[in-house]
Design a protein that fits this description.
115 residues; 2 domains; 3-stranded antiparallel β-sheet; binds zinc ion
Length: 115
């Protein structure tokens, strides 16, 4: 009886040791998993930051290109060419005539007719 009990006890101890080992291994794996998760997370973060940075830089470059092109296209010193309207007066009523480019004629607003 005595030996049986001690055998059970030693078996129990072996099982306990196995359990402790398994628990230690489990902790170790959990740590590894956490470390791996953090590593993958930081890679994803870096990729996201890279994409955002690249996008922002592309947008800034596009804006700069547009500004530079605009600056070259319309220098501030060149005035906008406005057709200077010649003042012509109606021969019949003496009112100021309006030149209508579509008809290449003068329009008298007083008489509502072309001259
Ligand atoms: Zn007139």
């Amino acid at each position: 009886m005595e030996s049986g009990t001690s055998t059970l006890r030693s078996e129990n101890n072996v099982l306990k040791n196995n359990l402790e080992q398994a628990q230690a291994e489990n902790r170790n794996l959990s740590d590894k998993l956490a470390a791996e998760t953090a590593r993958v997370g930081s890679i994803e973060q870096q990729r996201l930051i890279f994409m955002i940075t690249t996008g922002v830089m592309a947008a800034v470059a596009a804006v700069i290109a547009v500004v530079v092109r605009r600056g070259r296209g319309t220098p501030a010193t060149t005035p906008i060419q406005q057709p200077t309207a010649q003042l012509i007066y109606c021969p019949s009523c003496g009112g100021q005539l309006q030149y209508i480019p579509q008809h290449q004629k003068y329009w008298c607003p007083n008489e509502q007719k072309y001259i």
